[in-house]
Design brief:
Elements (H helix, E strand, L loop, with lengths): L3 H6 L2 H49 L4 H5 L2 H37 L9
Helix pairs in contact: 2-4
Length: about 120
């Protein structure tokens, strides 16, 4: 993390450039999270749709509703795998974006090492 005093020591152009780059990194990270959550919501919608179809077929007395019920178990496994993949992907992205932030901070906030005399 950078300190407020260090940030204020930068020139105004450098401050603006740093904030723009940091904003771009955060925007990319947010976009990657939202794209995977859309997939999860779509998958939940498909499972919900199947449950509604099964209930409608059961209530109307149509035979064969239990065959559709058998499709929920494999979808549940697929949903579990999708959530597991999402967790691994989030961990990987956190490390990747943390590295980008650290590179950006080290570029703008280099510590000057004074030679020992």
């Amino acid at each position: 993390m950078i300190k407020q005093e260090d940030f204020l020591k930068l020139k105004q152009n450098d401050r603006i450039e740093f904030l723009l780059r940091l904003n771009r990194i955060e925007k990319k990270q947010e976009d990657e999270y939202s794209s995977v959550f859309g997939t999860i919501y779509l998958f939940m919608g498909i499972v919900g749709f199947l449950i509604i179809i099964i209930l409608l077929l059961y209530l109307t007395g149509v035979e064969g509703w239990y065959e559709i019920l058998g499709a929920i178990k494999p979808l549940g496994y697929a949903f579990f795998v999708l959530i597991l993949f999402q967790a691994i992907w989030n961990i990987f992205n956190n490390f990747r974006f943390m590295k980008k932030r650290n590179e950006l901070e080290s570029e703008f906030f280099k510590e000057e090492i004074k030679p020992n005399k």
